[in-house]
């Protein structure tokens, strides 16, 4: 069970981000580089998922029992490091391409949360970044910058 106040703040913040992300996806132009799926499909889906997960987190905070009042360690360092990794991910996305930048972001996030499982973090990060790329580009026929074009 998490910290009620922190979880409510995080849930509210991610709810706003999810709604803004979904709203912003409607402003993406309809033209895509040979894609049959519009460029706003994936961002809209991610925004909707983030919104629903945030609502779930907010709902859970209202069901916390009296145990939630116990002192819990606040880990702002991990949160700050993950936000920094997210900013770097956004900044390097076009330069490194989807597969490499997503792999590095996930690896960093997993290692920030639990440093004891490096090999598992590498495997999950690689499969997720390659799997989502394959699903979106091959199955949905969307377009993402796969690798750097130096």
Mean pLDDT: 79
Outline, from the CA principal axes? globular
The end-to-end distance, rounded to whole angstroms, is 47 Å
What's the multimeric state? Answer: single chain
Largest sheet: none
- C-alpha Rg (nearest Å): 18 Å
What percent of the residues sit in helical stretches (DSSP H or I)? 55-70%
| Structural class by helix and strand composition | mainly alpha
What is the β-strand count? 0
Total helical elements: 5
- Spell out the helices and strands N to C: HHHHH
Strand content: under 5%
Number of domains: 2
Parts with pLDDT < 50 across at least 5 consecutive residues: none
Task: Write structural notes for this entry.
By secondary structure, the protein is mostly helical. The chain folds into two domains: 1-71, no CATH class; 75-141, no CATH class. The protein is 69% helix and 0% strand. The chain contains five helices and no strands. It has helices at 4-25, 41-62, 76-96, 98-113, 118-139.
Summarize, please.
With 150 residues, this protein is mainly alpha-helical.
Tags for this entry?
150 residues, mainly alpha, 2 domains, 0% strand, globular
């Amino acid at each position: 069970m998490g910290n009620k106040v922190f979880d409510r703040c995080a849930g509210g913040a991610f709810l706003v981000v999810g709604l803004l992300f979904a709203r912003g996806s409607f402003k993406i132009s309809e033209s895509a580089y040979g894609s049959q799926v519009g460029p706003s499909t994936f961002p809209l889906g991610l925004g909707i998922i983030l919104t629903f997960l945030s609502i779930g987190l907010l709902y859970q905070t209202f069901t916390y029992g009296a145990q939630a009042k116990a002192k819990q360690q606040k880990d702002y360092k991990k949160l700050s490091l993950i936000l920094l990794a997210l900013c770097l991910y956004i900044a390097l996305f076009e330069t490194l391409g989807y597969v490499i930048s997503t792999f590095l972001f996930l690896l960093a996030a997993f290692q920030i949360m639990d440093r004891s499982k490096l090999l598992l973090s590498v495997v999950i990060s690689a499969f997720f970044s390659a799997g989502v790329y394959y699903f979106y580009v091959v199955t949905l026929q969307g377009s993402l910058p796969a690798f750097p074009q130096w």
